[in-house]
Amino acid sequence: MAIRFALGFARDLSLRSIVVEGDSVEVIDALNSAASLVNSFGLLVEDIHNASRLFNEVTFSHVQREVNEVAHGLVRHERNIKDFCVWLEEVLDFVREKFDVDLYAEDTS
């Protein structure tokens, strides 16, 4: 669901080429596969595939959870926000800290 929302948001920003990273091997493998899944998960994957056709390029990439701290930090932060909120030009302090953790973890893996 988050990936589908992110694609819609990227489209609203008029982005044409995007990289979608996730730490679920199952989800990323399904998104990179042409095979159809006959269940509710398969319907969501199909919906994401349809949405991704609106872009020039979409890359679905798996990352280890240890190097995905920014995403997990944003999810934890979002739980305290009641309204929809977007940061386009400013970086929150905790995001910068998590980004530094991600970079270090990626360099050591």
TrEMBL record:
Residues 1-77 form the RNase H type-1 domain. GO terms for molecular function: nucleic acid binding; RNA-DNA hybrid ribonuclease activity. Pfam families: RVT_3. InterPro entries: RNase_H-like_dom_plant, RNase_H-like_EbsB-rel, RNaseH-like_sf, RNaseH_domain, RNaseH_sf. It comes from the Eukaryota. This is RNase H type-1 domain-containing protein. It comes from Liquidambar formosana.
